[in-house]
Design a protein that fits this description.
It is a single chain. The chain is mainly β. It has one domain: tricorn interacting facor f3 domain (Immunoglobulin-like, Sandwich), CATH 2.60.40. 2% of the residues lie in helices and 49% in strands. The chain has one helix at 191-195, and strands at 17-27, 32-53, 57-62, 72-74, 84-101, 109-112, 124-127, 148-157, 161-164, 167-172, 200-211, 218-221, 223-229, 232-237. The radius of gyration is 18 Å and the shape is globular. The mean pLDDT is 96. This is Aminopeptidase N-like N-terminal domain-containing protein.
């Protein structure tokens, strides 16, 4: 085995991820995201699968079809550039579900408290994944060699809104049970109750064009927009 990229743990003999489904619950009080990701591979794979992570807590790795646990290891120490090496052992699987949480030290996530915003009423968060920081938002093959499509459910306080480098599909109330497919029972707290709590809203996005992980991007806050053309908007703080 040989690495595809000197700045990634991705192995040349492992199939690349082609699609990622994300469930993201934003906890502004702790500057963390409680999340799950279903990674779909280009072909079924048996044996180890190497993924990049940084500043992530891995709660569980599961078979997305049966929600049975899959063996995994996480390197005990950080590589100063690449972060931590997550190795999942697959048995002819074509997808894998990873339940995880980010940390306040995520190198891609910039959390702003209300006093740091324009109106000084609500918090704000945005991403900067270039060049190799997507791995601090979700486990992935964080190399331009991997081109992925993705969709995301973003659960945020109702008074906020989200934008993403993807097509906006819907803004709606949370639906009971919609996180079960993402292994929500693997958290050490009641994820379902948090997801469906009063005052929360879900924004849905989908990116159908394969892009490298460093182009994954979102922002959440008190956002407004102005139309500047028939298909163009500029978003900024309200």
């Amino acid at each position: 085995m040989a690495p595809i990229d000197p700045h990634s743990f991705t192995e040349s003999t492992h199939p690349l991820t082609t699609h990622i489904s994300l469930s993201l619950y934003f906890d502004f009080s702790s500057s963390t995201i409680h999340a799950a990701a279903i990674l779909t591979l280009a072909s079924p794979h048996a044996g180890p699968l190497s993924l990049d992570t940084r500043s992530l807590t891995i709660h569980q790795v599961l078979d997305p079809q049966t929600l049975t646990p899959l063996p995994f290891t996480l390197s005990p120490t950080d590589d100063p550039i690449k972060g931590r090496h997550l190795i999942v052992t697959l048995s002819d699987h074509s997808s894998v579900l990873i339940v995880f949480s980010t940390s306040p030290s995520s190198s891609a996530l910039q959390w702003l408290s209300p006093p740091q915003t324009f109106n000084k009423l609500h918090p704000f968060v945005y991403t900067q994944c270039q060049a190799i920081h997507a791995r601090s938002v979700f486990p992935c093959q964080d190399t331009p060699a991997a081109r992925v499509r993705y969709k995301a459910l973003i659960n945020i306080p109702r008074q906020l809104s989200a934008v993403m480098a993807a097509r906006h599909e819907d803004r709606r109330p949370p639906v009971a049970g919609e996180t079960k497919a993402f292994g929500s029972s693997c958290f050490d707290f009641d994820y379902e109750s948090l997801w469906c709590a009063d005052g929360r809203v879900v924004e849905e996005f989908e990116m159908n064009q394969p892009v490298p992980p460093y182009l994954f991007a979102f922002a959440v806050g008190e956002l407004g927009f102005r139309e500047v053309g028939p298909r163009t908007r500029v978003y900024a703080e309200s």
